[in-house]
Amino acid sequence: MSIAPHRALKALTGLLCAVLLLAGCTMTVQGKGEYAEGGVKKNAPPSELNIQNSDGSETDQQVANALDDAFTFWKKQMPKVFGKEFQEPAGGIYSYTPEQSEPIPCFEGDNSSAAQNAFYCSAEDIIAFDRNFMAELSDTYGPFLVALVMSHEVGHLVQSQTSGLDDKAIALETQADCYAGAFSQSAQKGTKYYDLTSEDLDAVLGGYLLFRDQPGESADDPSSHGSGFDRVAAFQEGFYEGAGYCKDAFGPDREYTEFAYNENEQKTGGNLSYEEIVGYADTEMNAFGDAVASDEGKSWEEVPAEPADGAVTCDGKKQDDQVYYCKAESTVLYDDSGAPATASEKYGDFAVMELFALAYSDAILNVTGSKTKGADRLTAQLCLSGVYAGDAFEKTVEGTPTAGGLKISPGDLDEAIALLIGIGEDDQVINTYKVDAFDRINAFREGFNSGREDGLTASAC
């Protein structure tokens, strides 16, 4: 964030490692991790789809299987959505390594420029991929991330056959993300090669943040692909709404959350220090609580935020949560040396504010008379924290500070997404009640959309 007009919440360096570190996750970052199965059906016959320049590797076979499923998906969807038949790329599928001596399709000059890439090239109507990069993604995040990357490129193939968008890069890229989400929903139901689980989706979300633009880039940049929030949002829209929705949702009126740094944010990376953001949390969150309570016709009494002396203890009982609303003491307590400080270091300042927003959302639900418990209550908290973020973002767009004098900075929403992936039931940040990361982010996103449209109200949650 930033202090309006002079402050900031931002910068996600080493984001994915940070996701794993906060969660204390056992998924390895190098070598084969716990998601090695990745939703792949065992004993499915290998696809006979031809891969040009293949070395016969398992990776090339994974890509063939993924594209086989994606092509099957679009052979069914294209007539329904666009009223025409889907055509596989006439130029075929091409596997390469940057070290090879042969030219790579659609690349001129040094092959190294094609490293760590996969692409659809309309000039030659071909899908090509760096097989070493695909192997790395598969080993780290599970083989379904390979399928997601390939289904995104097939999304570009669909665009070339339907001419449905102008050439604004971020619209093309996020629509392809949406198409990848629609394909992934079919993979969850079960395809020839995939039977996706919630764990696979969570692993994919972590990998997806690899492909975001760096904070501070503009949605109007001719090479923009979208922020992490924009890309995950598009993917989830496709997953929940289907390919027909994706067709019409990325026109000129679509709004994106990616915007450039101002001069001060350029210097700070859009981040306040941990001490600064914690100092603002009390004022910011009480203003948030008061606004929502007033909208519900309720009275809000100030809830202070206080650091705990060691482990968080409420009414004499030790709590696992490291940021916790203690109803008995009407206080939000936090472990000053635990998760909030770690979130600040690993993700950025808005991740810290999100932790406080979750705790204060519990207090808001208490004031408004909500009787929900467990997973349902956490989902409502996630939604309310999204309402806060959405309202703060809309105020930033309008040039107005929040009640606490803050504004959203580029990358803040990516920090929230990273945090919501990183927190988990076993790491004692908060109790997730087994609500998986995919659903945590979806609840936050729904609240965000409500906050942008309707301001600080609990009506959507």
Automatic annotation (TrEMBL):
Region feature (Disordered): 36-58
Membrane topology: Single-pass membrane protein
Keywords recorded for this protein, A-Z: Membrane, Signal, Transmembrane, Transmembrane helix
InterPro entries associated with the record: Uncharacterised_pept_Zn_put
Domain of life: Bacteria
Signal peptide location: 1-31
Stretches with biased composition (Polar residues): 49-58
Locations listed in the record: Membrane
Cellular component GO terms held in the UniProt record: membrane
Protein name (database record): Metalloprotease
Keyword Signal on entry: yes
